[in-house]
Design a protein that fits this description.
Blueprint: H1 2-32, H2 35-39, H3 46-55, H4 62-74, H5 88-94, H6 96-123, H7 128-142, H8 145-159, H9 171-200, H10 204-211, H11 216-253, H12 259-268, H13 272-300, H14 302-309
């Protein structure tokens, strides 16, 4: 019952968060300026601007526009793109696959590698492998991902000609952007896994396990690693959200036609409808990711159920 209540509470919070996200994005973009005036050429007449405003419903009161936008979203109608004459929702969905592909590949490669490095570093504390793993994790956190992406292009595309520098559609074109994103995961998860393992190893239940005759392998896997992974699950979820939102830079550098690339292109053409749809969809993906992490956290950590109930 506690689990069900905690999950329902979190789903309710997610719905409220999505509503606030849509509201903030809608009004924030209107604060920037009149989309019609920003889109047209400088020599356009007032009649041209008024015609464009009428075409996209921008001549109506702001609250009417807001209500029409909310009711449209219920039917998954994000409005028409102002530059491509297509539904913005269809355009955004057509670019979601590259972003999700890079995100999933980065997690599939980065998380197991980071867990292995963190566990080995904790078990070999103070040894050479611990020093190397900690140094690599620190270096990974310190490097800006746009700089690291450019270095990958210079070394492996321009210098060695091993992988294409840009594009999307072949496995070779996925390698460099996936590596650039994976570094973000490996750096943080390695450090957290190592510190969580060392902290869990000092707990009373571990000493109790040894006292009851558990060997080092069983105590490490069953008691230390199991409890050390609880905070790691949270961080992996947060990193997933970071990968989705942070793909804007990597997709732009490697010319991957994902949501980030689409957002930059929409901003350059002042296509407000498309900007709105892209930002909202990225936000919804991040919120849903957080919801999944919280549900997993609720299932594996009984203490979180009491917090949700309160």
């Amino acid at each position: 019952m506690k689990i069900t209540l905690a999950i329902l509470t979190r789903i309710g919070q997610t719905i409220v968060t999505v509503f606030l996200l849509v509201t903030v994005v809608f009004f924030l973009l209107r604060v920037v300026g009149d989309p019609a005036e920003l889109m047209v050429a400088p020599e356009a007449s007032r009649d041209d601007i008024d015609a464009l405003r009428a075409r996209f419903g921008l001549d109506q009161p702001i609250l009417v526009q807001y209500w029409n936008y909310l009711t449209g979203l219920v039917r998954f109608d994000f409005g028409m793109s102002m530059t491509q004459n297509q539904p913005a929702g269809e355009i955004v969905l057509a670019h979601i696959a590259p972003t999700l592909t890079l995100t999933v590949l980065s997690l599939v490669i980065g998380v197991p590698l980071a867990l292995a490095l963190g566990v080995v570093a904790a078990l070999r504390r103070g040894k050479l492998i611990d020093i190397v793993a900690t140094a690599l994790a620190t270096l990974g956190r310190a490097m800006p991902n746009f700089w690291f992406g450019l270095m990958l292009i210079i070394i492996f595309s321009v210098g060695l000609h091993w992988f294409p520098a840009s594009g999307y559609g072949t496995w070779g074109q996925l390698v460099l952007p996936t590596v650039a994103l994976s570094v973000m995961v490996v750096a943080d998860v390695t450090r957290l896994t190592r510190s969580s393992m060392l902290e869990a190893a000092q707990e009373d239940y571990v000493r109790t396990a040894y006292a009851k005759g558990a060997g080092p392998a069983r105590a490490t896997v069953v008691h230390v690693l199991r409890n050390a992974l609880i905070p790691v699950v949270t961080v992996v979820g947060l990193k997933t959200a970071t990968l989705i939102s942070g793909s804007i830079i990597i997709e732009t550098i490697f010319a991957v036609p994902g949501l980030g690339w689409l957002l930059i292109r929409s901003i350059n053409t002042f296509d407000f409808t498309l900007i709105q749809a892209t930002v909202i969809l990225i936000g919804i993906l991040v919120v849903i990711t957080s919801l999944i992490v919280d549900v997993l956290y609720t299932l594996i950590d009984p203490r979180s159920r009491d917090v949700a109930k309160s």
